[in-house]
Amino acid sequence: MTTTLGLIRHGVTEWNTLGKAQGISDIPLNGEGIEQAIALANRLSSEEWDIIFSSNLMRARQTAEIIRQSLGIASIFTDERIREINCGIIEGTTEEERIAYWGVNWREQNLGMEDFQVVAKRGLNFLEELIVKHAGKRILVVSHGALIGLSLQHLLPLRFPKTYIDNTSLTILTHTNNDWTCQLYNCTKHL
């Protein structure tokens, strides 16, 4: 039995445009982000998807809602485990501001950022639970760049030593006989 997961990063927000770290700050989609979500929903509308899960953060929920309406799926299930990495005190700052406040080595300082291993673990726990509870289904998961990227790096480390996830990109994973495969990575052909 094959379970298919479509991992989607939310649409663009004003903070994305400004280059600000968002983390768990609850920032809505901007006009461009709404347009991106509509374009992705139109792309997905020719496919069969059974369930939609979303991070509980507004930008992911808004993206998921646009897709849900287009696909005619009854409801969205939210889960805190697939929210973005907590960026601590750097949230709301740009790279230039971080360098001005904490110096060029700001990444090496303890600024309250959630550990990458912890982020990957909660992402993987969520995915493992999905394939058990919804085996054989086609599931969309609307989440965030760091959560998706870190989960992929730990799930398929040889394929993904590094990742970059674009806004409203689609990554498709399949799980068959205890084996994960990536069918599509970071696809934005709808944009």
Outline:
This protein is of the alpha/beta class. It contains 6 helices and 6 strands. The chain has helices at residues 14-18, 31-44, 58-71, 95-102, 116-133, 145-155; strands at 2-9, 51-54, 76-78, 138-143, 170-176, 179-187.
Q: What topology emerges from the helices and strands here?
A:
Blueprint: E1 2-9, H1 14-18, H2 31-44, E2 51-54, H3 58-71, E3 76-78, H4 95-102, H5 116-133, E4 138-143, H6 145-155, E5 170-176, E6 179-187
Parallel strand pairs: 1-4, 2-3, 2-4
Antiparallel strand pairs: 1-5, 5-6
Question: Could you give the distance between the termini?
Answer: 32 Å
Whole-number radius of gyration?
16 Å
The CATH superfamily bears the name Phosphoglycerate mutase-like
Helix and strand succession? Answer: EHHEHEHHEHEE
Estimate the mean pLDDT confidence.
Answer: 97
CATH architecture type: 3-Layer(aba) Sandwich
